[in-house]
Amino acid sequence: MTEHADFAPDRRAGRLFRPSPPESVRARAATVFDTEARLPARVFRELTDEAVFCEFDLLLTPDAWPALAALAALHGDRQVDLLVVDGYGLVGQAWSLPVEATADDYWAEVGFESGRELDSVTIAAQTVALTGPSVRWGCWGERDPEVAVVRGFPDEAARQEWRRGYGPCADAAGVLASWLPPVFGERGVPDAYAAELAAHYAARRSEPDPTSA
Predict the structure, then answer these.
(1) Are residues 85 and 128 in contact, defined by beta-carbon separation less than 8 angstroms?
(2) How far apart are CA 90 and CA 198, in angstroms?
(3) Tens digits of pLDDT across the chain (213 residues)
(4) Three-state secondary structure along 94-134?
């Protein structure tokens, strides 16, 4: 994959691309994420709303693009930035795609065709970070636990509507109960891992008001 180094127009799939410089994409990713952290640790720096989990294998396919574009549009972002945090031969690769792009446009960037397997994000990326110019949302994906984590919904209604429209999705409890056990196999999800994931990504429950008996 070739890094987009300037704002020069690039005509692809019949659309005009004006990508951000890679250093801008990396800077925005560093604002939203702690790129040195890995799940179950806290990878989001400031975003603390209840996380929505998705399947990593779907994140880097055409099916994911409408969900990513919709998430960016919730915050008025006109593009989606992607940074490859870990990946065979792709570490640090960064690019932007306008929300008006199609699923085929997205696949042309992250997917593979004959002779492109070695620089395909879909094949080589191990950890990816996606956000937009607003830096008010983020999607963090890791191949090892096979999950992607989304945060930055404006409110609960927006979160639920997005989940209904772009599943399969789960909350932290659902991931721990159904998605992660097969990843860990017979030993099951370690208690410490489960506790840390829940602490960082589950919904925050309000403490009861002791005066409201």
Answers:
(1) yes
(2) 31
(3) 434 333 333 444 444 444 567 899 999 999 999 999 999 999 999 999 999 999 999 999 999 999 999 999 999 999 999 999 999 888 998 989 999 999 999 998 899 764 555 578 999 999 999 999 999 999 999 999 999 999 999 999 999 999 999 989 999 999 999 999 999 999 899 999 999 999 999 987 544 444 444
(4) EEEEECCCCHHHHHHHHCCCCCCHHHCHHHHEEEEEEECCC
Both tokens of 92, joined, read 């640090």
In degrees and rounded to multiples of 5, residue 8 shows phi and psi of -60, 135
d(C-alpha 5, C-alpha 47), whole Å: 29
Q: How far apart (Å, rounded) are the C-alpha atoms in residues 146 and 149?
A: 10
- pTM value is 0.87
SS (H, E, C) 27-65: HHHHHHECCCCCCCCCCECCCCCCCEEEEHHHHCCHHHH
